[in-house]
Amino acid sequence: FYNKTGIYWTxxxxxxxxxxxxxxxxxxxxxxxxxxxxxHKRYWRQGIMSKALKKVLQLxxxxxxxxxxxxxxxxxxxxxxxxxxxxxxxxxxxxxxxRYFNGTFHDVERYVLLCE
Length: 116
Known about the structure:
Distance between the termini: 26 Å
Oligomer: single chain
Strand content: over 45%
Number of helices: 2
């Protein structure tokens, strides 16, 4: 945040203040950010991430003047793909071996919103 390279927010259960996920973005250039998000499996398919993403996208578009918003997800993560498409993102391209986790590199799908 202080270096203007990104910001993250914690998603928490209001009653208990227990963290259940996170959402944020990385600044890729003066006009592009990459949205990132994660949610505990117990809270999937309840509209939580959709609501949070809408707020972050609204902030980026209305207050920051961002011209391009991207997001990446594993091709197999159909729930994330559907969420991005529901919010107006369009498939851009596949990035081969772009993310490393669980001991291996994974191909990811890049989705974009507002990019020219």
